[in-house]
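Provenance

Sequences were taken from public entries as deposited. Structures were produced by running a predictor on each sequence independently, with no templates supplied. The record for Glycerophosphodiester phosphodiesterase from Peribacillus butanolivorans is shown for reference.
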Amino acid sequence: MKKKKILAAVIAALMMCSAQPALADNESDRSDNRIFGPKTFDLQAHRGGMGLTVESTIASFSHALEMGVNTLELDVQITEDHQAVVTHDRKISGRNCKDTSPAFAGDPEYPYVGKYIKDLTLAQIRTMDCGTNTKPEYPEQQPSPGAKMPLLSEVIDLVKQYKAKKVWMNIETKVEAGASWETAPREEFVQIVAQHVREAGLLDRVSIQSFDWGALMRMKEVEPSLPVVALTNGPQFLQPGQPGASPWLGGIDIDDFGGDLVAAAKSFGADAISPVHGFPQNGKITDENYVPYVTKDMVEDAHKSGMKVIPWSINDMPTMNKLIDDGVDGIITDYPDRLREVMEERGFKLPKGYKAPKS
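Predicted structure for Glycerophosphodiester phosphodiesterase:
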């Protein structure tokens, strides 16, 4: 009961902060939804480019900035003490992090691996080494030994330290709509992330994406100047042909739109869709069993509706080329170096690389 009262107080305080009006410049600049983001093809480094450096670390985001990307793609979870940390998994995985020592002697919650982020404090989470473990499926992945799970504020500060004034951040709120008890409440995600972006003065260089479309709808109310991106893995979350609305769509029943992703996303004012590129999601256009999900028709429909299309996560060059031929506005990839090569071959303007700040 005490935790619920504290959470309610935190959210109430954040909501008071969010009551300030959105910046007029942002509002007027976005009469056409599709103008948000980089004005060139959008190379997004997935979790900082996890094919090259251990994911979601200061090292991975630094490497991406130095290589040259348009956008840093990152995930946010919320801790028990209401801190926004940058990590993908709602439950700490031993593949990504390893325990070192408890936050205090006799901590009954130790070890922390296997626990939900929402049930741990920042002090507990920061004891873990989340940079040493590499994954065999990413043979080029470099470790960052001893790396701590970063705060959202630290990644924002990193971008500022690099003076990367043209780099966007695409922040995913990792609300688990299908099992809401496994993550912090939706309202907490929305309020905390919006406050971070607002206080950092980055309303003009951040987009918010989520598989939980209800979080996007709420973000549009809390901070209308932030572009929102409707993530989907296709039929699994859209749930066409099933009774009622999918828990992932914020009350929208996809069958009311004939199963049409574009029409459903447009109905609540999404600025972009970010669909899985095809099936299986780790497949390639050159695979015999590969089935594309993103098509030229989907892209054209989205553009007619004023939305960008930025599929995820594409790691091979033939599939990258296929999607560019389809007309997508950007690509989220674990291998920004490969996408840079594709862009260069096609004569696209390459994003600038930034020098590491002097220590």
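The chain is about 30% helix and 15% strand.
The two ends are 46 Å apart (CA to CA).
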